[in-house]
Protein backbone atom coordinates (compact mmCIF):
# COMPACT_ATOMS: atom_id res chain seq x y z
CA UNK A 1 0.00 0.00 0.00
CA UNK A 2 1.13 3.55 -0.74
CA UNK A 3 1.91 5.56 2.37
CA UNK A 4 2.16 9.32 2.49
CA UNK A 5 4.86 11.35 4.13
CA UNK A 6 3.85 14.18 6.44
CA UNK A 7 4.81 16.68 3.73
CA UNK A 8 2.67 14.89 1.15
CA UNK A 9 -0.32 14.74 3.48
CA UNK A 10 0.00 18.42 4.32
CA UNK A 11 0.32 19.44 0.68
CA UNK A 12 -2.52 17.29 -0.60
CA UNK A 13 -4.92 17.58 2.31
CA UNK A 14 -4.57 21.23 3.17
CA UNK A 15 -4.67 22.79 -0.28
CA UNK A 16 -7.52 21.76 -2.57
CA UNK A 17 -5.83 23.80 -5.32
CA UNK A 18 -3.31 20.94 -5.60
CA UNK A 19 -6.14 18.87 -7.11
CA UNK A 20 -6.26 20.60 -10.47
CA UNK A 21 -8.78 19.33 -13.00
CA UNK A 22 -8.98 19.00 -16.76
CA UNK A 23 -11.95 17.77 -18.77
CA UNK A 24 -12.10 16.21 -22.23
CA UNK A 25 -15.45 15.96 -24.01
CA UNK A 26 -16.10 14.00 -27.22
CA UNK A 27 -18.84 14.99 -29.66
CA UNK A 28 -20.59 13.57 -32.72
CA UNK A 29 -20.58 15.84 -35.76
CA UNK A 30 -23.80 15.74 -37.78
CA UNK A 31 -25.25 17.31 -40.90
CA UNK A 32 -27.86 19.75 -39.50
CA UNK A 33 -30.16 19.15 -42.47
CA UNK A 34 -30.32 15.35 -42.17
CA UNK A 35 -29.19 14.54 -38.63
CA UNK A 36 -26.76 12.00 -40.10
CA UNK A 37 -23.05 11.89 -39.18
CA UNK A 38 -20.85 14.45 -40.90
CA UNK A 39 -17.37 13.15 -41.73
CA UNK A 40 -15.73 16.54 -41.25
CA UNK A 41 -13.56 16.26 -38.14
CA UNK A 42 -10.29 17.12 -39.92
CA UNK A 43 -11.85 20.30 -41.34
CA UNK A 44 -13.34 21.26 -37.98
CA UNK A 45 -10.07 20.59 -36.14
CA UNK A 46 -8.20 22.77 -38.65
CA UNK A 47 -10.50 25.76 -38.05
CA UNK A 48 -9.00 28.81 -36.41
CA UNK A 49 -10.15 28.77 -32.79
CA UNK A 50 -8.79 29.53 -29.34
CA UNK A 51 -9.62 26.08 -27.92
CA UNK A 52 -7.85 22.77 -28.34
CA UNK A 53 -9.62 20.39 -30.75
CA UNK A 54 -8.47 16.82 -31.28
CA UNK A 55 -9.34 14.18 -33.84
CA UNK A 56 -10.99 10.95 -32.74
CA UNK A 57 -11.24 7.46 -34.20
CA UNK A 58 -14.18 8.21 -36.51
CA UNK A 59 -14.29 11.12 -38.93
CA UNK A 60 -17.60 12.16 -37.37
CA UNK A 61 -16.02 12.67 -33.93
CA UNK A 62 -14.16 15.58 -32.37
CA UNK A 63 -12.81 16.20 -28.86
CA UNK A 64 -12.44 19.37 -26.82
CA UNK A 65 -10.00 19.78 -23.94
CA UNK A 66 -10.16 22.37 -21.18
CA UNK A 67 -7.04 23.99 -19.79
CA UNK A 68 -5.88 22.83 -16.36
CA UNK A 69 -8.39 24.30 -13.90
CA UNK A 70 -7.90 25.01 -10.20
CA UNK A 71 -11.62 25.17 -9.41
CA UNK A 72 -14.92 23.66 -10.51
CA UNK A 73 -16.12 27.17 -11.32
CA UNK A 74 -13.29 27.37 -13.86
CA UNK A 75 -14.16 23.92 -15.23
CA UNK A 76 -17.77 25.01 -15.76
CA UNK A 77 -16.66 28.18 -17.51
CA UNK A 78 -14.11 26.43 -19.73
CA UNK A 79 -16.46 23.61 -20.75
CA UNK A 80 -19.05 26.20 -21.71
CA UNK A 81 -16.48 28.19 -23.66
CA UNK A 82 -15.21 25.07 -25.44
CA UNK A 83 -18.70 24.05 -26.56
CA UNK A 84 -19.44 27.50 -27.95
CA UNK A 85 -16.12 27.61 -29.82
CA UNK A 86 -16.62 24.08 -31.20
CA UNK A 87 -20.10 24.93 -32.49
CA UNK A 88 -18.65 27.97 -34.27
CA UNK A 89 -15.78 25.94 -35.78
CA UNK A 90 -18.15 23.17 -36.89
CA UNK A 91 -20.59 25.63 -38.47
CA UNK A 92 -17.83 26.81 -40.81
CA UNK A 93 -17.72 23.29 -42.27
CA UNK A 94 -21.49 22.95 -42.38
CA UNK A 95 -21.71 20.55 -39.43
CA UNK A 96 -23.15 20.59 -35.92
CA UNK A 97 -21.70 18.92 -32.79
CA UNK A 98 -23.97 16.95 -30.48
CA UNK A 99 -23.14 15.95 -26.91
CA UNK A 100 -24.33 12.35 -27.13
CA UNK A 101 -22.74 9.03 -26.16
CA UNK A 102 -23.47 7.32 -29.48
CA UNK A 103 -24.84 8.83 -32.71
CA UNK A 104 -28.56 8.53 -33.37
CA UNK A 105 -27.54 7.20 -36.79
CA UNK A 106 -24.19 5.53 -37.38
CA UNK A 107 -21.72 6.63 -40.08
CA UNK A 108 -20.98 4.48 -43.13
CA UNK A 109 -18.31 1.82 -42.78
CA UNK A 110 -14.79 2.90 -43.61
CA UNK A 111 -15.12 6.22 -41.76
CA UNK A 112 -11.94 5.85 -39.71
CA UNK A 113 -9.95 9.06 -39.37
CA UNK A 114 -6.96 9.02 -41.72
CA UNK A 115 -4.07 9.18 -39.29
CA UNK A 116 -1.34 6.52 -39.04
CA UNK A 117 -2.36 5.50 -35.51
CA UNK A 118 -6.08 5.18 -36.24
CA UNK A 119 -5.47 3.34 -39.50
CA UNK A 120 -3.19 0.93 -37.65
CA UNK A 121 -5.93 0.35 -35.09
CA UNK A 122 -8.41 -0.35 -37.88
CA UNK A 123 -6.05 -2.87 -39.47
CA UNK A 124 -5.38 -4.63 -36.16
CA UNK A 125 -8.89 -4.65 -34.65
CA UNK A 126 -11.06 -4.75 -37.78
CA UNK A 127 -14.75 -3.91 -37.40
CA UNK A 128 -14.28 -3.18 -33.71
CA UNK A 129 -12.67 0.13 -34.70
CA UNK A 130 -15.76 1.19 -36.65
CA UNK A 131 -17.71 2.03 -33.49
CA UNK A 132 -18.54 5.65 -32.60
CA UNK A 133 -18.68 6.34 -28.88
CA UNK A 134 -18.31 9.67 -27.09
CA UNK A 135 -17.27 9.96 -23.47
CA UNK A 136 -16.20 12.54 -20.93
CA UNK A 137 -12.80 12.12 -19.28
CA UNK A 138 -12.00 13.93 -16.04
CA UNK A 139 -8.32 14.29 -15.12
CA UNK A 140 -7.39 15.09 -11.52
CA UNK A 141 -3.80 15.80 -10.52
CA UNK A 142 -2.27 12.98 -8.46
CA UNK A 143 1.44 13.12 -9.27
CA UNK A 144 2.60 10.14 -7.17
CA UNK A 145 1.82 7.02 -9.23
CA UNK A 146 1.80 4.62 -6.26
CA UNK A 147 -0.75 6.87 -4.63
CA UNK A 148 -2.76 7.17 -7.85
CA UNK A 149 -3.27 3.42 -8.19
CA UNK A 150 -4.57 3.27 -4.61
CA UNK A 151 -6.95 6.10 -5.46
CA UNK A 152 -8.10 4.03 -8.43
CA UNK A 153 -8.95 1.18 -6.06
CA UNK A 154 -11.11 3.53 -3.99
CA UNK A 155 -12.84 5.07 -7.02
CA UNK A 156 -13.90 1.71 -8.42
CA UNK A 157 -16.64 1.48 -5.78
CA UNK A 158 -18.34 4.56 -7.21
CA UNK A 159 -18.15 3.85 -10.95
CA UNK A 160 -21.74 2.52 -11.33
CA UNK A 161 -23.51 5.61 -9.91
CA UNK A 162 -21.26 7.92 -11.93
CA UNK A 163 -22.27 6.04 -15.08
CA UNK A 164 -25.96 6.10 -14.15
CA UNK A 165 -25.73 9.85 -13.55
CA UNK A 166 -24.25 10.69 -16.96
CA UNK A 167 -25.92 8.03 -19.15
CA UNK A 168 -26.66 9.74 -22.46
CA UNK A 169 -26.88 7.13 -25.20
CA UNK A 170 -30.14 5.15 -25.18
CA UNK A 171 -30.79 5.41 -28.94
CA UNK A 172 -28.83 3.86 -31.81
CA UNK A 173 -29.91 3.52 -35.44
CA UNK A 174 -33.05 5.45 -34.57
CA UNK A 175 -34.40 3.02 -31.98
CA UNK A 176 -34.32 2.69 -28.19
CA UNK A 177 -31.64 0.12 -27.31
CA UNK A 178 -33.15 -0.65 -23.92
CA UNK A 179 -29.99 0.74 -22.29
CA UNK A 180 -29.54 4.21 -20.83
CA UNK A 181 -25.87 4.02 -21.88
CA UNK A 182 -25.49 2.01 -25.08
CA UNK A 183 -22.02 3.53 -25.27
CA UNK A 184 -20.97 1.49 -22.23
CA UNK A 185 -22.20 -1.72 -23.90
CA UNK A 186 -20.34 -0.97 -27.14
CA UNK A 187 -17.23 0.19 -25.28
CA UNK A 188 -17.07 -3.09 -23.36
CA UNK A 189 -16.16 -4.93 -26.59
CA UNK A 190 -12.61 -3.63 -26.37
CA UNK A 191 -10.38 -6.09 -24.50
CA UNK A 192 -8.77 -3.31 -22.49
CA UNK A 193 -12.05 -1.61 -21.46
CA UNK A 194 -14.20 -1.84 -18.34
CA UNK A 195 -13.53 -1.38 -14.62
CA UNK A 196 -9.83 -1.40 -13.73
CA UNK A 197 -8.20 -4.27 -11.85
CA UNK A 198 -7.35 -3.92 -8.17
CA UNK A 199 -3.75 -2.70 -8.03
CA UNK A 200 -1.14 -3.50 -5.39
CA UNK A 201 1.28 -0.82 -6.64
CA UNK A 202 2.28 1.24 -9.65
CA UNK A 203 4.63 -1.59 -10.64
CA UNK A 204 1.66 -3.98 -10.61
CA UNK A 205 -0.25 -1.52 -12.82
CA UNK A 206 2.67 -1.37 -15.27
CA UNK A 207 2.94 -5.17 -15.35
CA UNK A 208 -0.72 -5.52 -16.32
CA UNK A 209 -0.37 -2.89 -19.05
CA UNK A 210 2.72 -4.66 -20.37
CA UNK A 211 0.75 -7.90 -20.48
CA UNK A 212 -2.04 -6.28 -22.50
CA UNK A 213 0.54 -5.08 -25.02
CA UNK A 214 2.30 -8.45 -25.15
CA UNK A 215 -1.00 -10.23 -25.86
CA UNK A 216 -1.90 -7.76 -28.62
CA UNK A 217 -4.88 -6.26 -26.78
CA UNK A 218 -3.40 -2.75 -27.01
CA UNK A 219 -1.03 -1.13 -29.49
CA UNK A 220 0.13 1.62 -27.13
CA UNK A 221 -0.55 2.82 -23.55
CA UNK A 222 -3.25 5.22 -24.82
CA UNK A 223 -5.33 2.13 -25.64
CA UNK A 224 -5.67 1.24 -21.96
CA UNK A 225 -9.40 1.95 -21.87
CA UNK A 226 -10.16 1.17 -18.23
CA UNK A 227 -12.85 3.30 -16.61
CA UNK A 228 -10.11 4.67 -14.36
CA UNK A 229 -6.51 4.80 -15.51
CA UNK A 230 -3.26 6.64 -14.94
CA UNK A 231 -2.61 9.09 -17.73
CA UNK A 232 0.20 7.97 -20.01
CA UNK A 233 1.55 11.52 -20.41
CA UNK A 234 0.19 13.64 -17.54
CA UNK A 235 0.59 13.48 -13.73
CA UNK A 236 -3.10 12.70 -13.37
CA UNK A 237 -5.60 10.00 -12.66
CA UNK A 238 -8.23 9.88 -15.40
CA UNK A 239 -11.85 8.83 -14.82
CA UNK A 240 -13.45 7.66 -18.09
CA UNK A 241 -16.64 5.82 -17.07
CA UNK A 242 -19.04 8.52 -18.27
CA UNK A 243 -20.91 9.18 -21.47
CA UNK A 244 -20.35 12.74 -22.59
CA UNK A 245 -23.04 14.54 -20.56
CA UNK A 246 -25.83 16.27 -22.42
CA UNK A 247 -25.31 19.65 -20.73
CA UNK A 248 -22.46 21.72 -19.36
CA UNK A 249 -24.11 21.64 -15.92
CA UNK A 250 -23.89 17.85 -15.87
CA UNK A 251 -20.23 17.93 -16.94
CA UNK A 252 -19.38 20.40 -14.18
CA UNK A 253 -21.30 18.22 -11.71
CA UNK A 254 -19.36 15.15 -12.82
CA UNK A 255 -16.04 16.97 -12.47
CA UNK A 256 -16.98 18.18 -8.99
CA UNK A 257 -17.95 14.71 -7.79
CA UNK A 258 -14.85 13.10 -9.32
CA UNK A 259 -12.43 15.61 -7.81
CA UNK A 260 -14.11 15.28 -4.42
CA UNK A 261 -13.83 11.48 -4.68
CA UNK A 262 -10.11 11.79 -5.37
CA UNK A 263 -9.60 14.15 -2.42
CA UNK A 264 -11.63 11.87 -0.15
CA UNK A 265 -9.69 8.82 -1.32
CA UNK A 266 -6.32 10.45 -0.71
CA UNK A 267 -7.45 11.40 2.79
CA UNK A 268 -8.46 7.79 3.49
CA UNK A 269 -5.15 6.47 2.14
CA UNK A 270 -3.31 8.98 4.29
CA UNK A 271 -5.04 7.46 7.32
CA UNK A 272 -3.87 4.01 6.20
CA UNK A 273 -7.24 2.81 4.86
CA UNK A 274 -7.02 0.38 1.96
CA UNK A 275 -9.91 0.18 -0.46
CA UNK A 276 -11.85 -3.04 -0.06
CA UNK A 277 -11.42 -5.15 -3.21
CA UNK A 278 -14.54 -5.84 -5.26
CA UNK A 279 -14.89 -9.05 -7.26
CA UNK A 280 -14.49 -8.12 -10.92
CA UNK A 281 -17.69 -9.97 -11.88
CA UNK A 282 -19.67 -8.05 -9.28
CA UNK A 283 -18.26 -4.68 -10.34
CA UNK A 284 -18.86 -5.38 -14.03
CA UNK A 285 -22.39 -6.49 -13.21
CA UNK A 286 -23.07 -3.28 -11.28
CA UNK A 287 -21.75 -1.18 -14.17
CA UNK A 288 -23.90 -3.16 -16.61
CA UNK A 289 -26.96 -2.46 -14.45
CA UNK A 290 -26.10 1.24 -14.44
CA UNK A 291 -25.72 1.19 -18.22
CA UNK A 292 -29.06 -0.57 -18.64
CA UNK A 293 -31.20 1.27 -16.11
CA UNK A 294 -29.50 4.63 -15.55
CA UNK A 295 -31.47 6.92 -13.28
CA UNK A 296 -34.59 4.76 -13.76
CA UNK A 297 -33.02 2.22 -11.42
CA UNK A 298 -34.22 2.14 -7.83
CA UNK A 299 -30.63 1.75 -6.64
CA UNK A 300 -28.68 4.55 -8.32
CA UNK A 301 -30.44 7.75 -7.17
CA UNK A 302 -29.94 6.58 -3.55
CA UNK A 303 -26.34 5.65 -4.41
CA UNK A 304 -25.76 9.16 -5.72
CA UNK A 305 -27.15 10.61 -2.51
CA UNK A 306 -24.76 8.35 -0.60
CA UNK A 307 -21.93 9.54 -2.84
CA UNK A 308 -22.74 13.17 -2.05
CA UNK A 309 -22.61 12.38 1.66
CA UNK A 310 -19.36 10.45 1.22
CA UNK A 311 -17.58 13.43 -0.38
CA UNK A 312 -19.32 16.25 1.50
CA UNK A 313 -16.28 17.15 3.58
CA UNK A 314 -14.10 17.53 0.46
CA UNK A 315 -16.80 19.56 -1.30
CA UNK A 316 -17.19 21.88 1.67
CA UNK A 317 -13.43 22.34 1.83
CA UNK A 318 -13.32 23.37 -1.83
CA UNK A 319 -16.47 25.51 -1.60
CA UNK A 320 -18.34 23.30 -4.10
CA UNK A 321 -20.90 21.63 -1.85
CA UNK A 322 -23.89 23.86 -2.56
CA UNK A 323 -23.31 23.80 -6.33
CA UNK A 324 -22.89 20.02 -6.37
CA UNK A 325 -25.93 19.40 -4.15
CA UNK A 326 -28.15 21.68 -6.24
CA UNK A 327 -26.85 20.41 -9.59
CA UNK A 328 -27.40 16.81 -8.52
CA UNK A 329 -30.93 17.63 -7.41
CA UNK A 330 -31.59 19.26 -10.79
CA UNK A 331 -30.44 16.20 -12.73
CA UNK A 332 -32.36 13.78 -10.50
CA UNK A 333 -35.50 15.90 -10.94
CA UNK A 334 -35.26 16.85 -14.62
CA UNK A 335 -33.48 13.76 -15.89
CA UNK A 336 -30.13 13.21 -17.57
CA UNK A 337 -29.47 12.89 -21.29
CA UNK A 338 -30.88 9.36 -21.51
CA UNK A 339 -34.16 10.42 -19.90
CA UNK A 340 -34.52 13.43 -22.15
CA UNK A 341 -33.63 11.51 -25.31
CA UNK A 342 -36.26 8.89 -24.59
CA UNK A 343 -38.86 11.57 -23.98
CA UNK A 344 -37.94 13.22 -27.28
CA UNK A 345 -38.13 9.91 -29.15
CA UNK A 346 -41.63 9.22 -27.86
CA UNK A 347 -42.75 12.76 -28.63
CA UNK A 348 -41.41 13.07 -32.17
CA UNK A 349 -39.11 10.27 -33.31
CA UNK A 350 -35.39 10.36 -34.10
CA UNK A 351 -35.49 13.79 -35.75
CA UNK A 352 -36.89 15.25 -32.53
CA UNK A 353 -34.11 13.57 -30.55
CA UNK A 354 -31.54 15.35 -32.72
CA UNK A 355 -33.33 18.67 -32.16
CA UNK A 356 -33.44 18.17 -28.39
CA UNK A 357 -29.77 17.14 -28.26
CA UNK A 358 -28.74 20.20 -30.26
CA UNK A 359 -30.46 22.40 -27.65
CA UNK A 360 -29.06 20.50 -24.67
CA UNK A 361 -25.52 20.70 -26.05
CA UNK A 362 -25.64 24.50 -25.72
CA UNK A 363 -27.92 24.69 -22.68
CA UNK A 364 -26.36 27.11 -20.21
CA UNK A 365 -23.79 28.36 -22.73
CA UNK A 366 -25.56 31.68 -23.14
CA UNK A 367 -24.29 32.88 -19.73
CA UNK A 368 -21.98 35.87 -19.98
CA UNK A 369 -18.36 35.06 -19.19
CA UNK A 370 -18.29 37.94 -16.74
CA UNK A 371 -20.84 36.14 -14.57
CA UNK A 372 -20.11 33.35 -12.16
CA UNK A 373 -20.42 30.01 -13.94
CA UNK A 374 -21.92 28.33 -10.92
Q: What is the string of SSEs from the N terminus onward?
A: HEHEEHEHEHHEEHEHEEEHHHHHH
Determine the N-to-C terminus distance: 37 Å
Q: Residue-averaged pLDDT, rounded? A: 94
The percentage helix is 40-55%
Note the overall shape.
globular
Please report the number of helical segments: 14
Structural class: alpha+beta
If classified by CATH, what would the architecture be? 2-Layer Sandwich
Look at the structure and give the CATH class. Alpha Beta
Strand content is 5-15%
Q: What Rg, in angstroms, do the CA atoms define?
A: 20 Å
Look up the CATH topology: Creatine Kinase, Chain A, domain 2
Quantity of strands, as a count: 11
Largest sheet: 7 strands, antiparallel
Low-confidence stretches: 1-12, 368-374
For the record, the count of structural domains works out to 1
Keywords: ATP-binding, Ligase, Nucleotide-binding
Function: ATP-dependent carboxylate-amine ligase which exhibits weak glutamate--cysteine ligase activity.
Family: Belongs to the glutamate--cysteine ligase type 2 family. YbdK subfamily.
EC number: 6.3.2.2
Amino acid sequence: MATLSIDQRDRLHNDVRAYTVGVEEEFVLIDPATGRPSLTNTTVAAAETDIELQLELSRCQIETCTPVCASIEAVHREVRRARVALIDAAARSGSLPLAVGVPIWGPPTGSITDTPRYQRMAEHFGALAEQVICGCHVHVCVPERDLAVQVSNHLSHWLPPLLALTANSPIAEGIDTGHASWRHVVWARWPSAGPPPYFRSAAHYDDIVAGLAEDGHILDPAMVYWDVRLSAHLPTIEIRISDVPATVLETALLASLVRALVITSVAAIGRGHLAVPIASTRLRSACSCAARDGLASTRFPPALTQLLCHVRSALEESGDYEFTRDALATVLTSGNGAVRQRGALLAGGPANVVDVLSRLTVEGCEADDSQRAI
